[in-house]
Specification:
The complex is a heterodimer of chains A (208) and B (99). With 208 residues, chain A is mainly beta. In chain A, 11% of the residues lie in helices and 46% in strands. In chain A, a hairpin with a 2-residue loop joins strand 5 and strand 6. The longest helix of chain A is centred in the first third of the chain and has 13 residues. Chain A is elongated. The two termini of chain A are 23 Å apart. Chain B folds into 2 domains: 42 residues, no CATH class; 38 residues, no CATH class. In chain B, 47% of the residues lie in helices and 6% in strands. Chain B has 99 residues and is mainly α. The N and C termini of chain B lie far apart (46 Å). Chain B is globular, with a radius of gyration of 16 Å. Classes of the chains: A mainly beta (208), B mainly alpha (99). The interface between A and B is large, with 39 and 39 residues. Strand 1 of chain A pairs antiparallel with strand 1 of chain B, so a sheet runs across the interface. Chain A: This is DNA-directed RNA polymerase subunit. Chain A: Its main location: nucleus. Chain A: One of its GO terms (biological process) is transcription initiation at RNA polymerase III promoter. Chain A: It is found in: Nucleus. Chain A: It comes from Olea europaea subsp. europaea.
Amino acid sequence: MFVMSEIEHTLRLPPHLLNRPLNVAIKGELESLFLDKVIGKLGLCVSVYDILSIDGGFIFPGDGASTYTAKFRLVMFRPYVGEVISARLEESTKDGLRLSLGFFNDIYVPVPLMPNPYHIEPDPEHKNGIKWIWEYMGENYPIDWTDEIRFSVHSVNYPPLPIEQGKDSEQKDSEEKGLRQKDIKPFAPMVITGSLDADGLGPTAWWV
Amino acid sequence: MKILQSNAGVLTNYEVLALFRSRGAGKDPTCVIAAVAPSEFKVYDYLEQTVASHQTIEIIHKFVEDCEKYDLAKGVMLNIVNIRPSSAVEIDPLIQDCD
């Protein structure tokens, strides 16, 4: 689930941090730059593991801050295809499930990757919710909200950043724009697609 | 920003948990004083609920040694250490062509 990546980055250290020891200040700057951000193809940055080297310390003309080139290692959350991860259920709709790890909520299990055969029934407790039930050997196994669910990583995608809609929509009807914005889901820079369609996957209560 | 090595080493859940613990994540429930950011704390919370919270580094070393005779792929061993399957049916999704 977690991988270390070595990165080299040139960063500007703001002058108000000059009274701190150098590596503490650089670590703080790196954390504010990279922590909890998704880096393309590398995954979600979870933590700064260590700093390998700090070079530079040059001050560019007209600038009050010094610029350093640091080499450091980051702990990235980057599951590989085929990895089995335990997660909790966050949303269950007709398109499939959405699972959450606490720190990462964009794990989708689409309908083709649900355990086969299954049937669905509307969930009375959650608005727009659907309860998924797996049928096996005559028994019905539902996917409940309290279970720890194991899924196998099917793929990891990094969708490109969307282009801003911006100025043209101001001329349109404001009510229409309001409706549109409600339906738009917040952009997810990293999406994991999981599969539940194998022995041993799905809620652990089914197998233990 | 330049990526020097995108894969400088794989970490088991236990190792990441130990990293957060060494920074003091477990001792302070409000996490104000510890050198752990709120987003890191969420990862720590998740890992505490998995089997990694009960593992030690010796257990993992011993497991890797014991598995040498089976010639498993690294990814498979990592999966097993992180999930700790206790029955045959749980191992099946981890290993291809399991017999």
